[in-house]
Write a sequence for this structure.
């Protein structure tokens, strides 16, 4: 029965509603008092990652990202987990942090990234990093820079490739691709995906043409490297360094040529000083008409010469005979038609 | 009409009463909310103000760093690490430093700051191993911590990074809590004596909450600074567009130590596997070498100098370490103050 107070009448329903409202208010006050300003530590724990702006991909001409990194790769049961992420050069750091400067050094246009899940239980993962560089030579450069010295070339995959413990790395045209996994169970899938992507990529001019001043004979296929700033020889003063490995049976040496312009003689002197800190001059000689310096670096043999605006040489020969043979071939190739004295990698 | 007038008057009275109760309740709620809220700083804050909270007992004669090695830690190919082996190594290494109890106050809150920079497989060597992180979390709880928070601020998609790296699962299994940063957790921090780091947003939400800080860094090559170790690890406490600091990375790394030094952090160097080249991201498994090594200490220069030797390099060739020693942060002559267990 309803209570009455003068002219007011409070029904049981009104009273119940009032109590509920007051209880809710009290609960709210208690909640705030207890929690205060609370940092929601795990509030975004399972929020989907923010994909990079899709518009970036459209602004750059070239193959569509979706064609290169499809939702699934047919035949192997690996499917893309999430959207394709696109990072233009000025935002590379958002994906690869301080490694971005390495790619900028060579010239990068964008990075396409996608992650794929698959394997027997569907939980194995492969991350695909697809870098579009500004030129095939840039792709060759960064590919060679990151390549493991222990990696053996994989044939028929892009322009050059290697497989390494569950991962596949390749370059084709101006593109450098990494399909990264870290287990034996990803080995076959990473190679399959790498081949599928490489097949979808456009070809570019062969960057090996830029290495025409290095001898073709005995050059180890896929060993060519191009460094805007030397990281092959360990100097901090050589730029525009082209190099490749030569030899067989574990006895290899590095042949290089660096464009030095008017600084050629100064850099030749600096290089000699640099090597003298590691060994000694054994002979100043003339090979194929070029004045060369031969050095013994504690059992490894180096030699170098200046020709026009080029500083060229051999590093790490097994013995003096091999050093002289390689130097002779190098002098001939640097002087050959098609290898202008102005040097490789002309700006 | 009386009935109509009484009803209207009663209605208005009820409205007024409800409004008064609501206003009083709202005011009380606002008061309670404000009482709990940390005052939002008008300007930059400094961890110097919190230094007293992080004080720990002195231990005369304690080494600057302790190195533990165990050849059973991982297979030669760098496969998964046995968590139990890591836990034993950590306990052994902490013993000469006074055990974890010296660094973690009983009932306190602990921040564990691993290098979780990428959504990478731990076998890549690009991040601290989840098993090492879990071992530290367990050790902190065993020492009496009431709460262990694990936080880092990777540049992109932090939640994804914690999930895919396996760090989130490992931390939860150990009883810790993952803290995923968002902008609400950052406030400008002033670093006393900074050379290049301006008042800059740092992850103050966790720093202001905890009583102890532990950093866990992998040992890895770094494209810009040569080596990424425990001092570089604090980069992950910064917010904002921090890539601009890459141009002054050696100076910034020293400033990062100035930032966290008031918290007297315990430093853990995860040298179980080492990223020898192509850092900080890593290229392939061929870039990683198994070292079976864990180092702990309080001297950032000494422990990082030791870390550089795991990379097969000369610590004096790393500029920020030379600068840090010159600034008095520690010693490059780590061998004199190192103990192997």
């Amino acid at each position: 029965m309803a209570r009455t107070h003068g002219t007011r009448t409070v029904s049981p329903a009104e009273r119940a509603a009032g109590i509920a409202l007051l209880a809710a208010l009290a609960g709210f006050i208690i909640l705030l008092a207890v929690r205060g300003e609370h940092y929601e530590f795990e509030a975004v724990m399972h929020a989907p990652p923010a994909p990079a702006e899709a518009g970036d991909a459209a602004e750059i001409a070239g193959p569509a990202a979706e064609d290169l990194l499809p939702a699934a790769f047919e035949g192997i049961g690996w499917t893309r987990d999430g959207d394709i992420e696109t990072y233009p050069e000025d935002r590379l750091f958002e994906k690869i942090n301080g490694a971005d400067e390495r790619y900028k050094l060579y010239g990068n246009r964008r990075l396409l990234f996608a992650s794929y899940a698959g394997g027997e239980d569907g939980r194995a993962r492969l991350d695909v990093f697809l870098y579009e560089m500004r030129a095939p030579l840039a792709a060759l450069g960064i590919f060679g820079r990151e390549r493991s010295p222990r990696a053996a070339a994989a044939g028929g995959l892009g322009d050059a490739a290697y497989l390494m413990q569950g991962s596949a790395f390749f370059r084709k045209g101006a593109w450098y691709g990494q399909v990264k996994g870290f287990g034996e169970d990803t080995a076959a899938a990473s190679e399959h995906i790498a081949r599928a992507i490489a097949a979808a990529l456009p070809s570019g001019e062969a960057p090996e043409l830029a290495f025409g001043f290095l001898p073709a004979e005995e050059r180890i296929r896929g060993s060519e490297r191009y460094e805007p700033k030397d990281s092959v020889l360990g100097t901090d003063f050589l730029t525009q360094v082209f190099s490749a490995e030569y030899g067989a049976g574990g006895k290899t040496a590095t042949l290089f040529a660096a464009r030095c312009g008017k600084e050629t003689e100064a850099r030749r002197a600096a290089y000699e000083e640099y090597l003298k800190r590691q060994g000694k001059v054994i002979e100043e000689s003339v090979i194929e008409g070029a004045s060369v310096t031969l050095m013994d670096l504690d059992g490894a043999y180096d030699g170098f010469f200046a020709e026009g605006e080029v500083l060229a040489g051999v590093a790490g020969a097994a013995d003096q005979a091999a050093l002289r043979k390689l130097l002779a071939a190098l002098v001939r190739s640097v002087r050959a038609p098609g290898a202008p004295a102005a040097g490789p990698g002309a700006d | 009409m009386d009935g109509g007038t009484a009803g209207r008057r009663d209605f208005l009275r009820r409205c007024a009463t409800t409004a008064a109760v609501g206003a009083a309740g709202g005011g009380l709620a606002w008061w309670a909310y404000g009482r709990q809220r940390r005052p939002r700083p008008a300007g930059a804050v400094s961890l110097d103000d919190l230094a007293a909270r992080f004080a720990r007992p002195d231990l005369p004669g304690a080494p600057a760093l302790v190195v533990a090695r165990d050849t059973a830690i991982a297979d030669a190919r760098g496969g998964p690490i046995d968590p139990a082996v890591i836990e034993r190594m950590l306990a052994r290494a902490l013993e000469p430093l006074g055990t974890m109890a010296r660094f973690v106050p009983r009932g306190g809150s602990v921040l564990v700051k691993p290098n979780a920079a990428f959504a990478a497989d731990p076998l890549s060597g690009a991040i601290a191993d989840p098993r090492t992180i879990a071992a530290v979390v367990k050790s902190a709880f065993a020492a009496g911590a009431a709460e262990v928070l694990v936080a880092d601020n990777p540049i992109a998609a932090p939640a994804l990074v914690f999930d895919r790296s396996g760090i989130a699962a490992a931390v939860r299994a150990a009883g810790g809590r993952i803290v995923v940063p968002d902008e609400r957790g950052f406030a400008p921090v002033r670093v006393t004596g900074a050379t290049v780091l301006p008042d800059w947003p740092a992850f103050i939400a966790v720093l202001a909450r905890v009583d102890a800080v532990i950093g866990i860094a992998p040992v890895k090559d770094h494209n810009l600074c040569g080596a990424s170790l425990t001092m570089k690890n604090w980069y992950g406490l910064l917010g904002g567009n921090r890539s601009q600091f890459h141009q002054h990375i050696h100076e910034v790394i020293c400033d990062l130590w100035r930032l966290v030094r008031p918290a007297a952090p315990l430093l853990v160097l995860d040298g179980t596997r080492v990223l020898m080249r192509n850092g900080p991201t890593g290229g392939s498994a061929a870039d990683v070498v198994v070292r079976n090594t864990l180092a702990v200490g309080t001297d950032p220069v000494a422990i990082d100098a030791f870390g550089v030797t795991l990379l097969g390099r000369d610590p004096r060739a790393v500029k920020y370490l030379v600068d840090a020693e010159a600034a008095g942060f520690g010693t490059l002559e780590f061998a004199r103050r190192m103990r192997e267990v």
